[in-house]
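Appendix B, Record 12. Input sequence as logged:
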Amino acid sequence: MIIEADGGSRGNPGPAGYGAVVLEAATGEVLVERAEGIGVATNNVAEYQGLLAGLRAAAELGAESVEVRMDSKLVVEQMSGRWKIKHPALQSLALEAQKLARQFPRIRYVWIPRERNTRADRLANEAMDAQAGTGPGKGRRAEPQPVRWTGASGTPTRFLLLRHGQTALSVDRRYSGHGEVPLTEVGVGQAKSAADRLSTMDGVGPGTPIVSSPLGRARQTAQFLADAVGGSVVVHPGLIETDFGQWEGLTFAEAAARDPQLHREWLSDTSIPAPGGESFEVVHRRVRRVRDELIAGHGATTVVIVSHVTPIKSLLRMGLDAGPSLLFRLHLDLASLSVVEFYPDGNASVRLVNDTSHLQR
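Logged structural output:
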């Protein structure tokens, strides 16, 4: 695949935005376009943000061979390793880009003149126009929109994210991935309390989509809510927990003792899989596909998702537009509730994280 990316700043620093396009290399077909205003920033920061958006989009499409084309000589040379990165703000962005780039077996960076980067340049300027309120912007309608402090417009799709209740493995704090393990008696009580809470929330009723991971502990938790509202549970395989491979059933200490070097690297790099398992980045990409599918089928409504730690964190990461380090810094309790809304214009709002107030009743 080909990534064309660009960024700009009107003032340097000033109001800034980026654009990124992913194309099929063989046909030139445009597969994805991304654009966003990023507030006040420099040209170089905006250029890097465009690169990051393009790399994320290509990863979501499952690209293996990537050619990045940009008219920023600085970004191309720095990412190719030929120029040093001295500015602290660019160092952190470049580090994030390098981590994303490691997902692709083959990647190269190519400088192109500005006149050959018109698609990404147009998107970046549309994003800056939309941010300034002087143009409709990519993906926005030209007619007036309700104004919110987030800048989001349109009716969002609201995801109520519920983690399953307690199991025997969670009691002992063991890695619990694809293996089947039922709820404990405490877990059943947690699931019932969560069902009572959700059944009273706006948008939750007999017709509300309740989408569950295929694993029994999630389906069992989801079924209590379905019974409470008179609905039904739909299973989606993409919401399954991370496959921890040979670490399944081990404690943190046991996994660290078994594979000390790999375990240390795994704790800081989301592209590294557990032995015989899958990486957090693979999970992130499949969960993003689930999110897009659910929005396409249930846009502008409320959807309940019953899943596990990693898929829920991935959805919150998307809502926050955060980097992969969020996966290691965010804690989610058993049977906790989180809420994220995704707007049709590409904005998002995280409204609740790890709420367990219903378990205290």
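The two ends are 53 Å apart (CA to CA).
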